[in-house]
Amino acid sequence: MENIIKESEVKMKKSVSIFREEVNAIRTGKANTSVLQTVKVEYYGQEMPISQVAGLSIIEAKTINVKPWDKTVLPAIEKAISTANLGLSVVNVGDSLKVNFPELTEETRKEYVKKVKKMGEEAKINVRNIRRETNEKLKHLQKDKNITEDDLKHAEDRIQKITDKFIKEIDEIVKVKEQELMTI
Predict the structure, then answer these.
(1) I need a labelling partner for 82 at 20 to 30 A (CA). Which of 32, 43, 134, 174 fits?
(2) Residue 28 contacts residue 45 (beta carbons within 8 Å)
(3) Where are the domains of the chain?
């Protein structure tokens, strides 16, 4: 029973972690290197994350410097960022790239907020599905007489508390990202 509960908590934590990464990849008006984490660069015939072929650093509030480890990959990085459709402008300055984050329009901000809220709802559904699967496993244990009815009730209460904790964390992530998006 304990293993089932711990396993479900690990799954919920992973689900929230993935959600956090996805939300961080949504650009706001400020420079944020995590926006580029989804960009893959063609390097020696393989698709590689941009962070494995270049150093990323924020040089101004709205600019990221992308300095490749190998200068020959600079055009591939430039192309990858441009085709990633992130709404960023890329300037080649010889040995590195300057990636500029243009201001978001009010309409774009609202669209991103809607997107974040939708992603938050999907993350909550994932967490609730994990809870449902866990409760089914526990009921199966009780049905097979491996645990008592009291044990089942206690375990379901624990699972609900864990679920509530992660739902609250998802809501907090959505709230913080919404504030970031709506702050000019």
Answers:
(1) 174
(2) no
(3) 2-24+105-182, 33-100
